[in-house]
Specification:
This protein has 225 residues and is of the alpha+beta class. It has 2 domains: 107 residues, Roll (Ubiquitin-like (UB roll)), CATH 3.10.20.30; 114 residues, Orthogonal Bundle (Fumarate Reductase Iron-sulfur Protein, Chain B, domain 2). Helices cover 32% and strands 13% of the residues. It contains 8 helices and 7 strands, in the order E-E-H-E-E-E-E-E-H-H-H-H-H-H-H. The strands form 2 sheets. It has a 5-stranded mixed beta sheet with strand order 2-1-5-3-4. A two-stranded antiparallel sheet has the order 6-7. A hairpin with a 2-residue loop joins strand 6 and strand 7. Helix 6 packs across helix 8. The longest helix has 14 residues. The structure holds FE2/S2 (inorganic) cluster. FE2/S2 (inorganic) cluster binds next to loops.
Length: 225
């Protein structure tokens, strides 16, 4: 199988495609494919030209940490949860998430996700269980990996500082259900940076690896708003 990777040596440098040959097991995930290519000391592209290791991130390799989020054959996905046997054709095309600045190759800087939450000025304080039997949904929303796949497919998220996307909405919902001391301030930021601009495409829910019911989080916050 051919593995075509969109590479970039450093932030702001010119991206370029490089193709590798993968001759490992078909049971591997895309994370396994990248590992297999990187394993050699002398890495070459498909034409035998020497090149460097492909930069990418992983931690859990079980679909739990979100570090390996990337775009595989045009679809945003977790590399450790995407398997060679499920890919169509003899070439897989891999590129970094497009809504975040590239650090190197497939590694992106997702700090914008955390920066947006800081603006709500809500921090985890004393836990006060809500009395509205909402614990099931709170548990689901708390599974967010912060992988950024929801932002990659969102037609409204551009990586700027205007619209913060589904990951922000779920975090606001969680914050509101845990610590209500700054709820009105948090709702103001939520209204300004989410509710005003969300067009409800719900593409975020299609790609979420944890199947978070973002629509339910939005509905609950909008009612409060
Ligand atoms: S390495 Fe953790 S989700 Fe893929």
């Amino acid at each position: 199988m051919k593995v075509k990777v969109l590479r970039q040596q450093a932030p702001g440098s010119e991206p370029y495609w490089e193709t590798f040959l993968y001759d490992g097991p078909a049971e591997n995930s895309v994370a396994g494919v990248l590992d297999h290519i990187n394993y050699n000391d002398d890495i070459t592209d498909i034409d035998g030209r020497p090149t460097g290791r492909i930069g990418w991130e992983c931690s859990c390799l079980q679909g739990v940490c979100g570090a390996c989020a990337m775009v595989i054959n045009g679809r945003p996905a977790l590399a450790c949860e995407t398997f060679v046997r499920d890919l169509k054709g003899d070439t897989v095309e891999i590129r970094p998430l497009r809504k975040f600045p590239v650090v190197r190759d497939l590694i992106v800087d997702r700090s914008a996700i955390h920066e947006s939450l800081k603006e709500t000025n809500v921090f985890i304080g004393e836990y006060r269980p809500s009395d509205d039997s909402d614990h099931g949904h709170q548990y689901g929303a708390a599974k967010c990996l912060k992988c950024g796949l929801c932002l990659e497919v969102c037609p409204n998220y551009t990586g700027g500082r205007t619209f913060y996307g589904a990951v922000f909405a779920n975090d606001c919902y969680l914050a509101a259900s845990r610590n209500r001391e700054n709820e009105s301030g948090m709702l103001k930021v939520y209204g300004e940076h989410f509710a005003k601009s969300c067009s409800k495409s719900l593409a975020c829910m299609d790609v979420c690896p944890m199947k978070i019911e973002t629509l339910a989080s939005i509905a609950k916050l909008n009612r409060k708003l």
